[in-house]
Design goal:
It contains eight helices and no strands. By secondary structure, the protein is an all-alpha fold. It is globular.
Length: 237
Amino acid sequence: MLRKLFAEFFGTFWLVFGGCGSAVLAAGYPELGIGFAGVALAFGLTVLTMAYAVGGISGGHFNPAVSFGLALANRFSWGELVPYWAAQLVGAFCASGMLFVIASGAPGFEPGGFASNGFGDLSPGGYSMQAALLIEIVLTAGFLIVILGSTSPKVPGGFAPIAIGLALTLIHLISIPVTNTSVNPARSTGVAFYADTAAVGQLWLFWLAPLIGAGLGAFVWRYLLGPEESLQDIGGE
């Protein structure tokens, strides 16, 4: 169990450090900045690389909403849910803290939003709370369906991390202007406490919406798309 938890810690650390780090350190330079598309790709690459690196140990969740959805889909033990959430949150906080220390080494550093998520005044495009809630639910549901489908025993093995990483890239390409893209409560929580905004006060949405979306995605997969699948099919207990 400890190996699983450390894998989740490190995978979530990598996701937040790489994805949010690309936004904080590399996105804003006029000539060398990677822009929204670069940040989207960075998030996808973090999941792809860690899914291959440690996915065989822990399942490669790196996201409380993913763990929740997998449990609802009968792919993951409910008894491991809280420990996984704890490991993911610790990984996100450690990555955010290290990123803050590095970023503050630049002259004139101001944390600003610090890659946090938000709606209204904290949305990159000024989108409303209702728009943020809806897009986070829909995209998290789609993400869960991609994860469940690509890891099904009825599809070719070994390619799931590629599909999952590309799905997360697509999700960011769609929703960075709306919420700065969460679909991951740990990612949202870690950086919010370092932002020089009211991001902490909006965290409730970036827990609620991904968990609802994960539940919706799990429901669609379990009862509409993969009704013949069982926990035993995927090697569970």
